Amino acid sequence: MSRRKLVISFFVGAVISVAALYVSFKNVPLAGLSGYLGSLNYWWFVPLFGVLVLSFILRVIRWRIILHPIARLSFWECLHPMMIGFMMNCILPARVGEFARPAILHQRHGATFFGVLATVAAERVLDLLGLLLMLIVTMKSVDISFAGKVEFAGYVLSQSTLDTAITAMVRMAVVLVLGVGAVSVTPVRLLMERAVMGSASVLVFLPKALRERFRETVCRAVVGIMERIAAGFGLMKSPLNLFLCVALTAGVWLLAAYSYILAAKAAPGIDLGYMELTAVMVIICFFISLPSAPGFWGLWEAGGIFALAVFGVSDRTAALGFTLAVHIINLAPAILGGFVSAAIMGVNVLKISTENADESPASPGAT
Predict the structure, then answer these.
(1) For residue 175, which phi and psi values (nearest 5 degrees)?
(2) Which of 102, 241, 295, 335 has its CA 20 to 30 A from that of 85?
(3) Cα–chain-centroid distance for residue 26?
(4) Are 183 and 230 in contact (CB under 8 A)?
(5) What is the C-alpha separation between 70 and 61, in angstroms, rounded?
(6) How far apart are CA 211 and CA 203, in angstroms?
(7) What one-character DSSP code corresponds to residue 315?
(8) Closest by alpha carbon to 134, among 261, 302, 256, 297?
(9) What is the pLDDT of residues 104-161, one digit of tens each?
(10) Domain range spanning residue 49?
């Protein structure tokens, strides 16, 4: 992405976020909402903030383990790129922050861009499987079916919308798991690589010299990328590291659920049990997987109002106030932490985002 395009992306992201905030709250009685926010017991946000920080720490430890086969980095060398990526995801469209980590580690530590990108994908697979497991657990404990619908900020959410989001996530999980498995299992990957290298022979309409050139450039480049991605999924070859990452993923999701429990203690009118609040968190996570503005403004709030309505919270002001407070305290550490990390590393966010994997994918020996 060129510098000009990235500046435009920052501007567009900011405009979309502001527009989403305006649309979200233009028809909301702000006096009632501000009154509710003023009634929150903000002392509960102190341990809540601590829980969120601990969750970030677990994520860093997990990523460091996943990275180990391709780059042996310290905790801090993993923390700062991760926070920068989270920050960019919150303020830029299309989750471009996912590419910040590979770009930074490639530039600062010589790690392969596609290898690091594969570790980010591995994280997403673990998170997705963890969320689906949380869904199964909550569905066995509480009923999340809802006959009504919620309209907020231009979003119309219903049981059908939730089912669609869940189905899409399940399909994505299946595709990702099969993809990771195919690349991680050496015989399967070698078979795929042979197929790629042999694809040049299909181009019978080209002269032999051009077919050979295609084979040595394009095909070898694709094979090089596959080998780097396989290195990024090296976690699969270590049962101990895989177990540790699964355990850390469980910890991340349990802390996420606990953050909602703490937030509910601060919020009048949100008198729900532990499993119900966990279900609220799960439902919001599925809804914000749908296309939305950077930072999920509007959709997060609509999802929260819907989820709370499932469990009988009919006070829309309380539901909106609670969800908005949870939304802000979840995004604020990521955004502020990302800018602090960028300052500590001396990273120019605009510059690092314009630089991608300039390495030659055809040199699989690179680390």
Answers:
(1) -65, -45
(2) 241
(3) 29
(4) yes
(5) 15
(6) 7
(7) -
(8) 256
(9) 999 899 999 989 999 999 999 999 999 999 999 999 999 999 999 999 888 899 999 9
(10) 3-354
d(CA 16, CA 249): 32
Tell me whether residue 363 is in a domain.
no
Most confident listed range (167-176, 215-224, 339-348) = 167-176
Structure tokens at 279: 């279900």
pTM: 0.86
79 vs 304: CA distance, rounded Å: 29
H or E element in which residue 138 lies: helix 113-141
E strand map for 49-181? 149-152, 155-158
Q: Is residue 327 part of a domain?
A: yes
The vertex-107 CA angle with 105 and 112, nearest 5°, equals: 60
* Residue 291 token pair: 């296309």
Spatial contact of 48 and 40, defined as CB atoms under 8 Å apart: no
Tokens of 266: 């601060």
Domain contains 361 = no
For 314-337, what is each residue's pLDDT tens digit? 999 999 999 999 999 999 999 899
In this structure, what token pair is assigned to residue 67?
């990275």
- One-letter amino acid of 34: S
Within a domain: 289: yes
Report the C-alpha gap between 261 and 94 in whole angstroms.
Answer: 30
